[in-house]
Amino acid sequence: MKIIEGGVVAAKGFKAGGIHCGIRATRTKRDLSLIVSDVKASCAAVYTTNLVKGAPLTVTKAHIADGYAQAVIVNSGNANTCNADGIEIAETMSALAADALGIAASDVVVASTGVIGQPLNIEPIRKGMPQLVKSLSADSCDDAIEGIMTTDTVPKSIAVEFEAGGKTCRMGGIAKGSGMIHPNMATMLVFITTDAAISPEMLQKALSEDVKNTFNMLSVDGDTSTNDNCVVMANGMAGNAVIKEEGEDFTAFMTALNTVNVALSRMIAGDGEGATKLLECKVAGAADEITAKTVAKSVICSSLLKAAMFGADANWGRVLCAIGYSGADVDVNKVDVDFRSAAGTISVCRNGAGIEFSEEEAKKVLLEKEIDILIGLNSGDAEATAWGCDLTYDYVKINGDYRT
Amino acid sequence: MKIIEGGVVAAKGFKAGGIHCGIRATRTKRDLSLIVSDVKASCAAVYTTNLVKGAPLTVTKAHIADGYAQAVIVNSGNANTCNADGIEIAETMSALAADALGIAASDVVVASTGVIGQPLNIEPIRKGMPQLVKSLSADSCDDAIEGIMTTDTVPKSIAVEFEAGGKTCRMGGIAKGSGMIHPNMATMLVFITTDAAISPEMLQKALSEDVKNTFNMLSVDGDTSTNDNCVVMANGMAGNAVIKEEGEDFTAFMTALNTVNVALSRMIAGDGEGATKLLECKVAGAADEITAKTVAKSVICSSLLKAAMFGADANWGRVLCAIGYSGADVDVNKVDVDFRSAAGTISVCRNGAGIEFSEEEAKKVLLEKEIDILIGLNSGDAEATAWGCDLTYDYVKINGDYRT
After folding, report:
1. Residue B370 near residue B276 (C-beta atoms within 8 A)
2. pLDDT tens digit string along A88-130?
3. pTM of the model
4. DSSP letter string over A105-144?
5. How high is the ipTM of this complex?
6. B303 vs A223, A402, A404: nearest CB
7. Interface test with B, best of A57, A87, A116, A323 (most B CBs within 10 A)
């Protein structure tokens, strides 16, 4: 498997585009995106577990209930959530895209991201549709990425090439997500395309399994969005024998999907609202996987630890504290903690108690942009990784006046 | 019942004092406090549920296992947690206080607050003991309050007078707590004294019941401290018939205790690290109390809502979002939300959807120092209140370099 260029248009038979249609007042950023497959594709999705769900999720769920889809339409600037006419608007969005593309509305995935609770005006979308279709390209998905960004500061895309059934397959994904990011089912908006042939059932299985170890292990601020979802379309144009069961090809597919999802998770964490650092918490030596995940997530979510990382302060007591309140059954007297970055590794805690270390060296390690928090529980073989970011002045600034 | 002056020395037979002994390098703040009863007192306590527990909690638990205590010694500047010699140091602290006061070490409650994982040097405490005892006063507990403060910016104390068994009783409390504050059993350090006569069993019952609705409904940052505890000493010097069972007197006692604890909870929330606003989330119309509490806590803990309140932004979608991911079984289509302050009340959401409101008026309401977030679930009669604060630049600043 190798990393390639192209995001969601890396795979055969996919095009993407994006325009500014006017949902956002400012013209500096695109606000409407479209991803289309030349042929109907197997489609799988995972959604937020928030009880307050964006209307687009309800509509998407119905549209892909048969396991197939051919296009994704998505807007930023408005979440179309907590609005009385939300379902109607989301259905209209699908229908407009379907008409323009000459496909069935029931093959359209629809998504929205932005402010919750403000009515979404369908007119800019209606008017922009011809231009949106015209923007479709098989060479670049840069415009589509821009169209789904909100407080994101960098575009997020990845693609890989892998072998299945003797054929070369490609898979690529794009994502938006910066705040209101917390592991609880799929997070944020993620769209993945692949030309591998796989049945809808195996595609859903692959996605549902993988998000447990990727997007669900990601937190920026502990707030689980109302509009999160992750959608994969597999159009089969690579020509491999359709993956219908577990085996070598499914494993290759899972590996590719995991590579895409880990890369996007890291991009989202590193671009968390206001973030200056990507944090990766790796827990090893846990009695079981649940324990490892619970500990990793608790540490990555601690506001106090996140603020300490922003300050490059090796305050490992906050790591211990977050392990202690995680709810996991851990022997705190066996816990080891190290901090690691490109500048080196520094051990700060052994058997639940502090050890001597050079504050100067610790500072050097923690001033890097990517910090690994390594936790050894010394109670078994299970491992888990979680991703997050530091807590900064800018997170507060961005969210103190998000609507204005 | 009426509010009176005096904090923990308001009740008959209690003295308190505080000094700078040198645990903190800087002499600008006291770092060692003592509270003493003239006679042995019934004693009850609740402790953090964090698996990583400060050594002083273990020692205190053993000392008050018989239901009685006569003094509290507490230091700030060092939590005496995650240290190999923690228990020994905490035992020595008790013994030093006991010797100086001429009481049994097993009647001493010991507590520590500050940095986790740095050895606590007992010498400054040993050397300071004579001066500490000399500082005891029945007239003021200001020095004792200062001695337990860490990042607190205001002293926290309250006292009330109430009737039980035809006698006038008094009860007062002091607290420290600013960061690492999250509802999960008692939070922070809280010391309460009363001259009411009550059995240890009924005192524990009163405390355990009340914290569920007070300190456990409080969150500054979602981090549950390793050293939290709340201790009540009741020395009986008011001369009322000992409260040994439920009834009128116990109810009067519970009311007094609730008044003290609510007042301290509000003070702690309003003085949350970096906070500019006290937030009170009142949930009404819940199907049951658990639902009401779960919703109230989820909303008060949302980083996004806390940042919006800092920015005086009526972003009610974040309230709905936090209700949705709370885990409570709520019909989101029935939810009403209002914001209220001294400047008025503004309705922003009815039946789970936004309603028109004046942004200007909303701004006026939210620019006040104390904001009530009123949530109506319209599904029953249960209610709950939670307290918290806004998320500000200063929270990040304070916690970016806490140890240095």
Report:
1. no
2. 999 999 999 999 999 999 999 999 988 888 899 999 999 999 9
3. 0.76
4. GGGEEEEEES-SSSPPPSHHHHHHHHHHHHT-BSS--HHH
5. 0.72
6. A223
7. A116
